[in-house]
Each structure stands twice: as structure tokens, then as C-alpha cells.
Design brief:
This protein is of the alpha+beta class and 67 residues long. The protein has a domain of 42 residues. Strands 1-2-3-4 form a four-stranded antiparallel sheet, with no helix packed on it. A hairpin with a 5-residue loop joins β3 and β4. The longest helix is centred in the C-terminal third of the chain and has 8 residues. The protein starts with 7 loop residues before the first strand and ends in an 11-residue tail after the last helix.
């Protein structure tokens, strides 16, 4: 049985999609902070510094598999 998520509303926050004020709730899912608009259901995740650094560096291709 999984535990219910604790959700907190952010006072004065505006949804980046629908621009509704006081409609953003903050919660954690798998140790990742997420926000969701209760009006339009827009969702965003908080990216950690480790993920940001990993994606900012150019990736090298080791090989290409062609079946």
C-alpha cells in the first residue's frame, strides 16, 4: 500500500500555462519535487543539479547499432 502524497499550495504562485493565480500545488514523488496546476493540470518537475550538469555536458556516442 502506497502512502498518499502530501500536497501544499503555493500562495501567490501563477501557473506558467494558464496564468491562474493560487492554483499551484507542490508535492514530492520519488524524491523529486513536482508542481501541478489544479485548474489546467499542467505539471513540472524540479531538476536536480546533478541532472542539470549531466545534460549540459556534450554526450559522446560510443557506437551505433544497426540491426
Amino acid at each position: 500500500m502506497s502512502l498518499p502524497r502530501k500536497k501544499r499550495f503555493i500562495a501567490g504562485a501563477k501557473c506558467p500555462k494558464c496564468q491562474a493565480v493560487d492554483s499551484i500545488m507542490l508535492y514530492k514523488e520519488n524524491d523529486v519535487e513536482k508542481i501541478e496546476c489544479v485548474e489546467c493540470h499542467h505539471k513540472q518537475s524540479q531538476v536536480t543539479e546533478a541532472v542539470e550538469k549531466a545534460t549540459a555536458q556534450p554526450q559522446q556516442v560510443i557506437g551505433v547499432f544497426k540491426p
